[in-house]
Amino acid sequence: MPTTPRRLIVLGDSLFAEIAFEYFTHDSEYDVVGFAVEEEYRKQETFHGLPVHPFETLEEHVDVGEHSVFAALTYTKLNRVRQRLAGEAKRKGFALASYVSSQAFVWRNVKLGEHNFIFEDNTIQPFVSLGDNNVLWSGNHIGHHSTLGNNLFISSHVVISGNVTVGDNSFLGVNATLVNDISIGRDNWIGPAVTVMKSTKDNQFWLPPRSALRETTPRDAFGVEDPA
Q1: CA within 20 to 30 Å of 212's CA: 25, 63, 77, 105, which one?
Q2: For 2-34, how does the pLDDT look when each residue is reduced to its tens digit (9 = 90+)?
Q3: What whole-number distance in Å separates Cα of residue 106 and Cα of residue 213?
Q4: What is the location of CATH 3.40.50.20 in the chain?
Q5: What is the secondary structure of 189-215 as a DSSP string?
Q6: What is the residue-wise DSSP string for the chain?
Q7: pTM reported for the whole predicted model
Q8: CATH class in words for 7-97
Q9: β-pair type (117-118, 99-100)
């Protein structure tokens, strides 16, 4: 079985690309040796002192057999930009890299697909299955026997309870909660602080609880007086 090349090209030059560079460099076996951006969006020749290659011709600049690729993009177009670039890199012949933080807890029988990025303080319990091309930002709880699909973006402090299924190309906002034994459809946008208590259909938009601005100030509401 061939080994995965450890020389790494990060796709992108945004904040996430910079974060990926930091994590891969200091908490993985990968050696980041460059970046790549689609020519239309490539605005600089170097980033962190490393070359920024045009993605369309990346295979002409580096050896496909000696380099892996990670597409450091977030949830643009419900994760489809990241999905497309990862797929194109794979079709070029590049191996796709994953990152799992040394500070994440991943139980021994969790099934992980390819091209995932799992930040610190994630807890992934027994019998979880995680597909391909997912981002789990920091501090999430993924409950036992849950099945997470492909091309997901899970923000920080999300709670996915036991035996939950999450459909492809969905987004879960900060502090979202999914209760036990439900299924989330494909292409769902679940906003920050939303609690989902029943299964959802494909292509649904779940808005967060309304936070209305009140004319009174917090000090007035709680009867706080200035000291004499």
Answers
A1: 77
A2: 578 899 999 999 999 999 999 999 999 999 999
A3: 41
A4: 7-97
A5: EE-TT-EE-S---SS-EEPPPP-PPPS
A6: -PPPP-EEEEE--SHHHHHHHHHHHHSSS-EEEEEEE-GGG---SEETTEEEEEGGGHHHHS-GGGEEEEE---SHHHHHHHHHHHHHHHHHTPEEP-EE-TTSEE-TT-EE-SS-EE-TT-EE-TT-EE-SS-EE-TT-EE-TT-EE-SS-EE-TT-EE-TT-EE-TT-EE-TT-EE-TT-EE-TT-EE-TT-EE-S---SS-EEPPPP-PPPSS-HHHHTT-----
A7: 0.93
A8: alpha beta
A9: parallel
And the tokens for 208?
A: 């967060």
Tokens of 121: 């303080």
In this prediction, residue 1 has a pLDDT band, given cuts at 50, 70 and 90, of very low
Which residues in the chain are classed under CATH 2.160.10.10?
A: 100-202
Q: CATH second-level architecture of 100-202?
A: 3 Solenoid (2.160)
User: What do you get for the CA distance between the two ends of the chain, in Å?
Assistant: 77
Distance CA 88, CA 76 (A): 17
